[in-house]
Amino acid sequence: MESGLDGTVALVTGASSGIGAATxxxxxxxxxxxxxxxxxRDRLEALAAGIRGQGGTALVLExxxxxxxxxxxxxxxxVAELGRLDTLINNAGVxxxxxxxxxxxxxxxxxxxxxxxxxxxxxxxxxxxLLRAAGDGPRQVADMVNVSSVAGRAARxxxxxxxxxxxxxxxxxxxxxxEVAGRYVRVSLVEPGATATELAGHNRPEVxxxxxxxxxxxxxxxxxxxxxxxxxxxPRHVAVNEMLIRPTEQER
Length: 252
Ligand SMILES: NC(=O)c1ccc[n+]([C@@H]2O[C@H](COP(=O)([O-])OP(=O)(O)OC[C@H]3O[C@@H](n4cnc5c(N)ncnc54)[C@H](OP(=O)(O)O)[C@@H]3O)[C@@H](O)[C@H]2O)c1
Description:
By secondary structure, this protein is of the alpha/beta class. It is built from seven helices and nine strands. Strands 3-2-1-4-5-6-9 form a seven-stranded parallel β-sheet, sandwiched between helices. Helix 4 (105-136) packs parallel to helix 5 (160-180). The chain is globular and about 50 Å long. NADP nicotinamide-adenine-dinucleotide phosphate binds next to helix 1 and helix 4.
């Protein structure tokens, strides 16, 4: 069956779990060939096997995108092996919460290295290919979707550095959107609220305990994937610049 993303190629970072895995599967279901980037190869291989089993095309890219060269290689391999790049889903991220006073600096470094620098390395490497795809691609338009967070809109007590990184993603996205809009590369910002994934599980036990009382209703990763598919499947003259998505009961 013909689908909206037939003939296009998408690269998804953080495709080994959560929102990235769900988005990669959804893109493949829409006809895109997908490159799956993350560190856990076994997870990527399992996802790729599922996509191929449905008749799709998937490329496994085991990489750590906090390493500039590995991020650049992930983009280069996508183009070399799948032929082009129409869609970049900048999704890989880590959220390490808790008071700033006494926080391990290594946690702050991990968030800045992945949520900011890793995303920038991928964006930088992908941009020339996205611009080319917008010129000669099947849809004459290309997409970069940057996954931020509700924390990219409002800082809260206990999420300072995570919020800093996501505010940075928002600022970069808006600036880049203005820069490339006229060349038909759409830069979109997605800001999920609480979503049931592995994200919170990387926190220290004492932080996890305090988080348990904070989060009530959650969305599924598929709910965010659904929003991303909506964004990248708009007709050429429509750009969804920003999407803030919360579980219905989430107030802040
Ligand atoms: N879940 C939520 O409530 C929520 C809310 C707002 C925003 N978000 C954002 O959504 C995005 C996806 O998070 P998620 O909730 O789906 O969490 P997740 O299940 O923990 O997924 C994070 C992904 O990032 C990958 N990753 C981590 N370090 C990496 C590295 N150095 N290089 C390459 N990939 C790396 C992980 O794979 P490997 O470990 O295999 O490398 C994993 O695939 C993040 O940007 C997060 O901030 C999530």
